[in-house]
## 1
Amino acid sequence: MVGETLRNYLMIAWLLPLAGFVVEIFFGFYSKNPRHSKAAAWCAVGCIGAGFLCSCAALVTWGNANDWCALEHHDSHGEHADAGHETAGHEHGEHAAGDHHVAEPAHNAAAAGEDHGHEHAVAAASGDAADHDDHASGSQQTTYSGVLYTLGKFGSLELSLDYYIDSLTLVMFTMVTLIATCIHLFAMGYMSEELTDEYVDHQAHTSDGKHVHRPGRFYRFFAFLSLFCFAMLGLVLAGNIFQVFIFWELVGICSFLLIGFYTERKSASNAANKAFIMNRVGDFGFLIGLMVLWTFFGTFRFGDTTNAEGVVAEQGLFSMVHRDEATGNFLTEPITGDVLITDNHGHALQQDGQNRSIPYYLLVVAGLGVFAGCVGKSAQFPLQTWLPDAMEGPTPVSALVHSATMVAAGVYLTGRFFPMFVQEVLLTIAYIGCITLFVAATIAVVATDIKKVLAYSTISQLGYMMLGLGVFGWGAGLFHLITHAFFKSLMFLCSGSVIHGCHHEQEMPKMGGLLKKMPITAITMLVGVCAIAGFPMLFGLHFSGFHSKDAIVASALAFMKANPSHFLLFFIPLLTAGITAFYMFRLWFYTFWGTPRDHHVHEHAHESPWIMTVPLLILAPLAWLCAYGGESGPLYLMLTGDAPSHLANGVAAATEGGLVMPGHEAVHAVHSQAGLLALAAAFSGALIAYILYGTNLVNVEQMKNQLSGIHGFLANKWHFDDLYDALFMKPAHKVAAFCAWFDKTVFDSILHGSAKLVVLVSQWDRIFDEKVVDGFVNLLGTSTQSVGRSFKVVQTGRLRQYVMFIVLGVVALFAVVFTTFPG
Amino acid sequence: MATKRNGIGVLMGVELVLNGANINFVAFSKFTALGLDGQVFSLFVIVLAAAEAAVALAIALNFYNNHLTIDVDRGNKLKG
């Protein structure tokens, strides 16, 4: 069974990092010399590296099972496809870690589709290639889903750990494990300062103004990285949205732990808290979305579960809503307009003799809720401010968690959950992405901290992905996710190398002229910069960002043509493409070009050791070439192999004047036009950056002073932090101060008053006890005593007197008796 | 009995009182409807008087041993 093989491969890849985490955190601590040993790092690298091999194996298994049908290219738009035949083999070799024979001369994928044998070789060698969907024809199974473990049953409802494997899962697995392996290797060099019993943290001070001295935390860092990898892979493998939520929180806590790794620094612990709390805001929406889905659909699963005979036993979310074949809109109840909940064949499910349905607005709420979670995790407007602060973490963390994987998880979930989104939700996604990409890009222009520039650039690129998804460019958005992961992790590692080489100097104004000192870092960084700027053609091969950004801009243009009122969704990304090129080249020229601005930093700068440069050299070709072939290339075809089926033809307006979603044809028609515009924007941005920072033609300082108003506005991050400070922090402080006052005056006075009352009452009680109760008892005692004393005189001790008493008594008795009873 | 200071004299007075009581019991039982009650009572009293005499004589002996006299007025140690 292919499904079981795939499941086993991916489960190994998923669970190995967890095993690694356990070993590192416990045995790392108990080993003889934990502070000096690199064993934990090798353990982590081994686990994630093995995970990468398992992912590749799963990819090959999957491809072989469906004869690499994903690579058979149906569409005819292939203007980028024939670029760069000659070095295709090179890229494939990089990808597949050297296994399989290299296909050469490499056909482009479209051509390879006709020749089955040959195509096989290309796909197998690329390790990333493959597939095109056969959802339409149904001849090949490409998605596999099932249950791993049942968590609990509530009547007919069931919560479980599931898996859902399709081409997107496999590509994500391969990407995450590959990048994580590189970053683990890099971190082994970058974190080597922690291999000591006494680490001096120069940025943290104790109360008496000295630097903090603490034991090194090398093994702990790698344990956290392993835990993160486990959580991230679990998120990708998850087969139901509740499971996604579980791992969503797990990556959140790993992010928290890693941002706050230098926990003695106040800024680091604040940043960790900020990241965690802002994510909670988004996750609140996520929970609301989950509740709506659970209430109306009764399941969280994406795909259908089949029983042993291959018959559908239980439907997943994706098959419970159906789209009309002609218009692409959801099937609805004709009178109420509620969206029908259907079986696998599009017939409405019945309950109590009525059609089951979900009100349209609640489907919007569910979609917006799930997207709110993605907004938090992917640092979209208005929750974007945590990501720049998260740069307080060590640079490998920024590369892995805060650029390539975790923040992309929001985009991944948006893509995964795409079939459930209605037009209104998609429009929201598009606008949120659009605002984010513009705001973040403008801030990146004035940022001077090298990591902050990259952080804002990450936010901006995530905005591009969201925009791509929102304007119905599903493939484009996810395509950019993968290419961005490669080039951004590369650039973060390069910045890490620079920071390491400059002895933890992060301010770009103190750098400059580092090209000669650190050539490998500078060149690999340049590759990343060209990739993100979207430059075409180096030795006849386009940079990956060129393809993916083109795809997004083309989708946006098609969307604008279909819905002219939303023209901003095209022009802002186009403008931002230019800004992107500008700030990225500004970063590169600032850091590596020109003359050294701080001689102290420059003199001590050095190229990083091989363990840090090798990952750069692995990632640089990938960042350049992973998108080889563009939208006819293996990566794109593989990604979109299991794309939602309503994408191809677009969606017609549901109501008069409603949104129209462009299909593939419409996007294809404007592709070259959009590509040219984006290219022009990128070139002009890069040119301006060169003039301003690469030459001495313009005095940048003077320009900054002339534009001090706008510069201050951007340098203060559009005052978002101030705004949130004024909107939430200040009122919260006010309310807290009021509560404290209320507590101190009202509650405390009530407490004090009652305490005084109690004291008073007990004082009275004491008096009563002492005077009344004790007095009565004492009186009784003394009176008894005095009576006894007065009677004692009777006892004289004289016997004859007693006898006289007896005689007198008897006589008296007689007298009484005789007088009482006379006769 | 009340006038005697000699312990033996007092004892003899006690015997006389008891015997007087016995005679009363026997004599008055003639006028009651209870038959032999008076006689039985007096028999009990005789037995008790015998026991009492034995105890009293022992007390008198011990009294003498301690005080070398049997003058009852000397025995005022228990005065309150």
## 2
Amino acid sequence: MTFLADGPGASIPLHSWWYKGPGGSSYSDASDFAFMTIFWYSVVWFVALFAITTYFVVKYRRKEGQASEVSPQHNTKIELIWTVLPSLTLVVMFVMGFRGYSDMLVPKGGGLDCDLLAQKWSWSLKYPTGGSNTESLKANELASTTVPIYYFPEETPVKLRLISKDVMHALWVPDFRAKVDILPNRYTKFWFESGKIPAGAKTLMFADITDPFHFLDGVPYVDHAIHCAEYCGDFHSDMAAVIRIIPKDAFAEWLKKGDAALPPVQRGQKIWETNCQTCHSIDGTLRTGPSWKDLFGRTETMTDGSTVVVDDNYTRESIYEPQKRIVGGFGGVIMPTFAGALDADQINALIAYMKSISVNAKEEPDPADPKPDAKPGDKPGDKPEAKPDAKPEAKPAETPKAEPKK
Amino acid sequence: MTTLDHSGHPSTPAHGGHHDEPYYTGKGGVWPTIVDWASTVDHKKLGVMYLTAILVLFFLGGVAALAVRTELLEPVTTVTTITASGQAVTRTEGQLFNPGKVDPVTGEVSYPADLGNNYYNRLFTMHGAIMVFMVIVPGIPASLGNFFLPLMLGAKDVAFPRLNLLSWYVYTLGSLFGVLAIAYHGVDTGWTFYTPYSTTTDAGHWRVVYMILAAFTLGFSSILTGLNFVVTVHKLRAPGMGWFDMPLFCWAIYATAIIQVLATPVIGITLLLLVFERVFRVGIFDPGLGGDPVLYQHFFWFYSHPVVYVMILPGMGVISDVIAVHSRKPIFGYRAIAFASLGIAGVAFIVWGHHMFASMSEMASVVFSALTFLVAIPTAVKIFNWIATMYKGSIAMTTPMIYALIFLFLFAIGGLTGLPLATLNTDLHLHDSYFVVAHFHYVMFGGTIVALLAGLHHWWPKMFGKMYNQKAANIGALLVFVGFNVTFFTQFFLGTQGMPRRYASYPAEFQIYHVISTYGSYILGIGFMWHLLVFIYSLAAGPKAKDNPWGGLTLEWVAASPPTEHNFDHEPIVTHGPYDYDTQVPPKWDPKDWPLPDPAKVAAAHRH
């Protein structure tokens, strides 16, 4: 099989004008080859047509008092030639596209089967082990939002089963030269097999020495951007993620540890970064939904006028049935349900994280609670593991950073 | 020698009275004139009224486009700073338009990124919806088509003049719905109204329904005009004008009208279903209600792909006529061009699936890819024939001819960049990227709008009886050409490198391309304003135009400039083809000023 740099597509002249570099999947070079072939084919046609046009315009420019010369008004032979010959070249193009398309459709056996769920405006990936991503990356130097990083092994077929929670989305990995629409009512599929990580690739370095993924330090990696390519609303352009290709053995070890290895607060923060942060800030800034700063434990007035304490159950309900009770001032906001996307453990981690950033998250019963003897611990869904992290801390917990260093 | 003289009458008889006056002559006083125009059934007045309405909407859509480009000068970023008191303050940067939001608790105003993004989404929807439904689709057929189809056929008017007036009012009503939607804060669905986004966004507001109704109503105007033109071409050709004696502009309008009549009802039904789903929650497209969003895309593109050819075919017709007249040559391969128009109109109906390679079944994608390549063939045939027409011509670099050459240049790029979009594996990379944005602007703008400019400059003397300053107009053409290419050629590179369309923000690495593109759009905007000034100056102080300034052989040049209310004093009789430059002296020209080639050479050449 051919792979990126050694494929013929990337070595065609002017490839670097069109692409940032060779593609990263098993089928990307065929796409580049087809594109660059069509490009040069078009250049030849275009230059030929405009050389002739320019020649005519100059040679046959109007001279006053002189009639245009006589020439035939039609020529069936010429019409046939310039109808049939270009048509034959189109057949070549179609076949080239069809063959490349077949390779993009039919995944190779083995490898990883993952689920990717899209919703306004985030992605959530589930690995075969049930784990999800554990890290996120700043989209750029200035951005406050971060994008999730999905680790995948090099030279391994990865099959994604895609579905949307709400409107249509599309998964585009420009480096793989591939895209597929994500529909709310049926699965679509996307597969890729990454090429070999080139020698001299950047290596991972975790800044925080206590980071549970410190074992990945020094591992080479290649990043590929993911964009949503089907218009989906306000944060359509922020619906990004990164596919990070690492060596097979490093990936196996990473998958074994999984995100379950993190303490609940840190895990909750990861979940917030990938699922919640586009709409819910943690510093008091108003986004589409209420900020989580000091939210947990606070008494809020709902759109219908009733008051509710933001406790474990209200949090859980708001994640699974967001439209049931909405905080006043956010009436028109349509938050999608996360039922099926976040399991009970993940909700617990989120609650732990919310408590960690709220001064209102107190252990004693809330005065607004009508039942004075009800304790938070009695409520279903309030796992004891969340308690140690529920200290009133205004500052978000420091998290491991995956900022690569050279 | 001219077409008129066969009836034995002089070509401009001095009847006296209002028959000699230009069609636009006022009726004594402001109000009677307004009432006269508002109730007119004259195809020429209606053509001018359409042109005015279309130019006003083009201005609106253009302002939205410049706003979109300006917004994209900088990527949107959010910067968090810690104040002296330790408070974290987040600020959104790189957004021009952000209405802000009041915190329900503290009453403080903040400017979160989503509000600015939402504004951007409304702007690009406004640009797309106005330009497609209100400008490019009706553009050439309704303005130039209305004015010149009857004139070129030698008719007094279209077949159903009152229906024509109704079409204009329906068009205006539809446009008002659109403006109403914009006045109510605009819609953020994109001009394609993809479900289930379009049936769920802005819940509780009517503005999305207004915009859908606008497209629905405009569709009726399109159907009525198309019907009118089909009947006009069939029934009102002057005596002696067979099908293959029609100017190619009429062929193009005829092919366009057929598509309008056949395809537009489909979008009408689709949009109505969309309104039913949105308002009455009837499940058709929304999976939440048991529908299928891909069904919507099939319905939508079954109309909206053929309509691409409604946009481009009239432009091709204009170019055929402009090249022949300004090269003073018979069009090469008349029948090939005429049949290519019909061929494009036919193929147009079986390629809609190429908008959905990323969501359709694999087999359907393969079939639609193969069918899509078919469109390239008649299109290429037309370009070859146009260039062949110039061979051995007498080519004058007039403003219309310069615009025709610009059309060939831009449309060739638009056509060639369609090839990697029809090719399956490359399309899956380029689909919904800036490459597509650049491609369809080269076709829609480089094709339709440039052809409209070519036609407007070609027929302006006939429409208003005034010449414009050609040197000044050529400067406008240069500005438009440079501005357009700077704006959109950069977007091809953005697309291949990974920039998705309809993005309010983007990774910083793309900024340089966006900056170049935005400055290009400013040049383009200046070019249009320049043209507007040239036209206004022409109306106010331009020299009187001759009846046949370019030496055209078709019947509109027989009429006066500007034409009288009834177009011709006597029904013209056609004795020669529309482009017989080898044997004919054009109407209103003195044979002394018009040398003809040696008849022996002509006879020899035509023996082929």
## 3
Amino acid sequence: MSNHHYDPTTDISPSAAYPEVSFQHHTDDAEFRTRVRKTTILLSVITIFELAIGLVIYTMHKGENPSHLLILMFKGAVCILTLAKAYYIVSVFMHLGDEIRNMIMTIVVPLLLFVWFIAAFLIDGNSYRNLRNTYDPHFRETTTVKEANHAEEPAPKSGKE
Amino acid sequence: MMWYFLMSDAFTFGAFLISYGTIRFSQNFWPDPNVVFNAFPGAGHQNLPLAFVSVMTFILIISSVTMVLAVHAGHNGDKKGVIKWLFWTIIGGLAFLSCQAWEWHHLITGEHATLIDGKIELVGQTTRVNPWGTLVHGAEVTDALKNSSQETLAALVAEHNHTATHEQLMGMSKEQLLGMINTAELHVRTKGPVAFGGYFYGITGFHGFHVFSGVIINIIMLIMAQKGVFERRGHYLMIEKAGLYWHFVDLVWVFVFLCFYLI
């Protein structure tokens, strides 16, 4: 830090001796403000997009014969938008983008474990369902959504539900 | 060090959300979030999917922005700025917690007609039972209504008919009550997957606890800044760390929002 001089006579805490924040702060107020404003607007716009997609999925569920592939694609789009949001929060608000490269790597590389973590456990859950549907008829009959019911579903009322 | 703590916390939350995903993938049916979260304070029974949770999301994003401004004020050694923005961040955190308290209260006490063991019962969402199964129609509903208790029938009539008192309804015969229930207006569902309630309360509760501790940390930072502790120390690094924690809480909410409310 440019304006930070370590003086052991006034402060012996480790954080004062070795500041964890390793980046050079931009003291330019105008630049900082536009950056924060831009990110805020970006995050809000992404959130509004996500909500819009959420409502689209909702109306698709309500309609007859919703296309499952299309719904899955919309859900995938929401996931990607969420990752974009996470990226902006971490890199701009949390300033990780301004840290030195090695520091970023010590954080990001362990997080790659999530790729395996998510894939392995979702596949596991899916395989458990398939096994039960194959070998446990009771489970299959009691939990499967009956498609026939959808056709005779009464028109949605504005009441509760 | 803060970063490594946050990374470990990310794995904790990640494990929770992934186990939620595993259970969800192992079920043939999972509740539609738009059916579960469609209420708004003061809007009664109106169907407003996603409305309230978007308010909560924006509250958290805005409080993250005020935290950025507090950290920035700290860099410039601007004590007044730090106090002002920290104050608004705390307000945002408290607003979020209040919203969550309302939502939990609504989910636990908001009772819905549910088909359980051949009869209709009114249940809210708990960790043991929840009313978010598939819709039941026609003869199944009328049969179940005949088996239901007087109490349940009276409550179902009272939802639409506000003229009769509870005592009057309880005094009527079951046939009279059945005649007063409009089965077309009635939305009956089966029981939802048991795990839904536990995961919802567990994960949003754990996140809410993080928000709560974040608010406490921010209040401590506010008092320290007020007393001039950071001024004497010559730097506002503590605010920076509190800020990292606060942004992390916002970050986690982004994923909780995704997993529970959007997909």
